[in-house]
């Protein structure tokens, strides 16, 4: 170290402050080859206790990330970007800072850095990756509208997108459209994503990639909304057919939510598990407000109808309860603590109370469970006979 440079460091130390010494960015290899007068030193940061190049700071941050210290790595990558925001390593430092923050559990910090990277360096190869990761995080944080807006930027790249990137973009767009009630537009993007999955064989038996969970959840949401739009007040003339249609949509939605769970992602599994339980819970609630038929023209017949309905559809509550219990067990096993887990806890308590209320209501009726079951069997036999006659 030269005498002049050593004296400069001593002066800084005596002042108790930090400073930054910089040199122009590294010149191209051809310029360096022309002679020592063209050599450009790497940019150096000088503090009270250290003097390191930007490259050395970046390498230190990378080492922290590789050795399992994401929080420290995030701080170091943030420092690299802050010190040299327009330098050669700036996009990489910003990207790695976002990755490190996400690994450390700070998704908000990760999101802001991915968005910043996409804005500042849209033409950089990492710009597209930043957009994809932004959509993933926005969907995870349930900021559906913003996810749709960023998905539009991705979809504008068209054929440039890789298969999984396309799935993320279409599912992000679909989830955003669902929040504004645009069911058909959301379905269009879901089908686009499913075509990509089928065309590239992305969904094989067993576990699926996490990116597919996002699309399958959107598919489940479309089917759930369509199912819950089918109501039984006023009672439709073709009640059995309408009920069958809703039940089929319920099963279709359950299938999509089950595919969501195949990604083995605790957050998406909690969302999907809660939705399945909710499907059965809401169907039960809608069925229990169906009024007695015209044939139930006396109090005993009305009570028989009520009891038969309670006995027949109590299974829906038990299915809902089972799904909530399964979801909560998964959350306990994986330490998942999202709002969906709280919803499942509240729903389970409500379903427990509903099952007890149903049992008490049946016990108050002047009919035994055996008599109610016999009435149900008789109705089923008549319905089958009527169907056969057609």
Structural features, described:
The protein has 16 helices and two strands. It is mainly alpha-helical and 390 residues long. Strands 1-2 form a two-stranded antiparallel sheet. A hairpin with a 4-residue loop joins strand 1 (44-46) and strand 2. The chain starts with a helix and ends with a helix. The model is unreliable at 1-36 (pLDDT under 50).
Short structural summary:
The chain is an all-alpha fold and 390 residues long. It has 16 helices and two strands. The N terminus is likely disordered.
State the strand order across the main sheet: 1-2
Taking pLDDT < 50 over at least 5 consecutive residues as the criterion, the unreliable ranges are 1-36
Distance between the termini: 101 Å
Major pleated sheet: 2 strands, antiparallel
Strand content: under 5%
Task: Assign the structural class, choosing from mainly alpha, mainly beta, alpha/beta, alpha+beta, or little secondary structure.
Answer: mainly alpha
Q: What's the β-strand tally?
A: 2
The count of helical stretches stands at 16
Topology of this structure?
Blueprint: H1 3-15, H2 29-32, E1 44-46, E2 51-53, H3 54-66, H4 70-83, H5 90-103, H6 107-120, H7 125-140, H8 144-155, H9 163-179, H10 183-199, H11 210-228, H12 239-261, H13 266-287, H14 299-334, H15 339-364, H16 369-389
Antiparallel strand pairs: 1-2
Helix pairs in contact: 3-4, 4-5, 5-6, 6-7, 7-8, 7-9, 8-9, 9-10, 9-11, 10-11, 11-12, 11-13, 12-13, 13-14, 13-15, 14-15, 14-16
Primary descriptors:
single chain; 390 residues; mainly alpha; Serine Threonine Protein Phosphatase 5, Tetratricopeptide repeat; 3 domains; two-stranded antiparallel ribbon; 16 helices; 2 strands; 2% strand; elongated; disordered N terminus
């Amino acid at each position: 170290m030269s005498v002049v440079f050593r004296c400069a460091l001593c002066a800084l130390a005596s002042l108790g402050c930090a400073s930054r010494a910089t040199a122009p960015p590294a010149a191209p290899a051809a310029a360096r080859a022309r002679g020592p007068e063209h050599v450009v030193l790497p940019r150096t940061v000088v503090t009270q206790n250290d003097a390191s190049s930007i490259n050395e700071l970046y390498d230190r941050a990378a080492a922290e990330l590789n050795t399992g210290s994401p929080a420290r790595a995030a701080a170091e990558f943030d420092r690299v970007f802050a010190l040299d925001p327009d330098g050669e390593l700036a996009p990489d430092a910003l990207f790695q800072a976002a990755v490190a923050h996400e690994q450390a559990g700070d998704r908000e910090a990760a999101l802001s850095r991915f968005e910043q990277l996409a804005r500042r360096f849209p033409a950089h190869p990492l710009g597209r990756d930043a957009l994809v990761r932004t959509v993933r995080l926005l969907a995870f944080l349930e900021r559906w509208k913003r996810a749709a807006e960023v998905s539009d930027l991705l979809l504008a790249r068209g054929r440039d997108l890789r298969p999984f990137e396309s799935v993320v973009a279409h599912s992000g767009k679909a989830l955003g459209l669902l929040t504004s009630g645009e069911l058909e537009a959301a379905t269009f993007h879901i089908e686009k994503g499913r075509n990509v999955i089928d065309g590239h064989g992305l969904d094989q038996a067993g576990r699926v990639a996490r990116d597919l969970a996002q699309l399958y959840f959107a598919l489940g949401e479309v089917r759930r909304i369509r199912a819950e739009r089918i109501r039984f007040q006023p009672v439709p003339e073709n009640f059995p057919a309408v009920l069958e249609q809703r039940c089929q949509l319920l099963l279709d939605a359950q299938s999509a939510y089950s595919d969501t769970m195949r990604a083995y992602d605790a957050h998406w599994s909690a969302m999907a598990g809660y939705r399945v339980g909710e499907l059965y819970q809401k169907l039960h609630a809608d069925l229990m407000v169906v009024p007695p038929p015209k044939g139930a023209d006396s109090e005993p017949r009305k009570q028989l109808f009520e009891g038969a309905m309670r006995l027949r559809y109590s299974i829906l509550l038990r299915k809902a309860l089972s799904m909530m219990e399964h979801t909560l067990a998964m959350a306990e096993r994986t330490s998942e603590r999202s709002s969906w887990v709280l919803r499942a806890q509240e729903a389970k308590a409500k379903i427990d109370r509903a099952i007890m209320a149903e049992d008490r209501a049946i016990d108050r009726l002047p009919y035994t469970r055996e008599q109610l079951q016999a009435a149900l069997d008789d109705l089923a036999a008549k319905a089958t006979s009527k169907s056969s006659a057609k």
